[in-house]
Here is the input.
Amino acid sequence: MVFTNSRPNDSAFDATQAYPIIRSRLNARDFGKVGKVRLWLEWSVKLVPLLFQENISVFHISDIFYIGPLAWFLGRMFKKPYILYTFAEELNKQLHQPDTIWSKLKRHFYSHIIQNADGLVGVSDYTISLLERFGADRRKIVKIVPMVEPYLTNKGINLEDLRAKYHISDQERIILCAGRLVTRKGQDFLIRAVPQVQAAFPNSTLIIAGRGPDEKRLRELVIEVGTQSRTIFTGFVDEGELNALYELCEIFVMPHRETERGDTEGCPTVFLEANAHGKAVGYADGGTAKWLIEMQVGEQSHEHIGNGDAGFLKVVEAVGQLPHGTDLYVYPDERILATAVKIRLRKAQLTPPLP
Here is the structure.
């Protein structure tokens, strides 16, 4: 049995599932502070009678702050265990809150919900490291990495039709970035790096797939750097079109960052999806990427990569040695990012595509 919020056209999806789905009357986009309190009350009213009627043995909770207290309270009342599924963003943002009375209370609350869970699931080692900062018992934690379909498909979308839709010739070199248009994704770094890439590869085009609150700012930035004729904003794309875009591109780049408020990437599935299509992936500082770099080359080397000309030359040399299709790490600096992308495009010219 699943409790969740309402979404457009959810009844068609619910009808295909083998288990009952109970939905809040609130749409996911209606969530504000008042909406989340309403959600908590509505689920409490609906769930308590079902605990007497159905054989519910365990709660699986996907939201620590709004659903976590409900699971903790009902778990204690009805002696039911709960398992908490966590993501880096929600944990890291809480750790970066200003040191106020409210933020201290909230961190204490997070710690209480985490420490009293009967099981914890993290999507990456980085997420698990954040759970431990809240006092989680490592023995209770299981890592479940987001997965992609073993056979990704463009669901019948013809690549030539897609080229026609976006007015892309078959000679263009496609750099793809897909994700919600928000500050942490780092699309602005990529946009600022594109003029240097296009100076070396005039037939390269940047495609930014997705929508979000930063769209207006990013479109204005494209005009500011003068690449509006070689930059495409697709807006929302469905699964089939996204997979077709992976097929069209030569490199996928999302130079994400960790914001001052702790907003970051935990384990972005777009990296895994691009890899599944055999495409090189460019990523940057923050979240899981930062954790991996620090584990592999050490904190000192990680800092050196992004600072000064010596660090710049080190990155250029390292990227130049990577085989075609290999992931690359680039510090979120326009010059380093542009150079890494240019080297990757140059290597792709000399290397036959993957079978």
Summary: The radius of gyration is 23 Å. Residues 33-53 form the longest helix (21 residues).
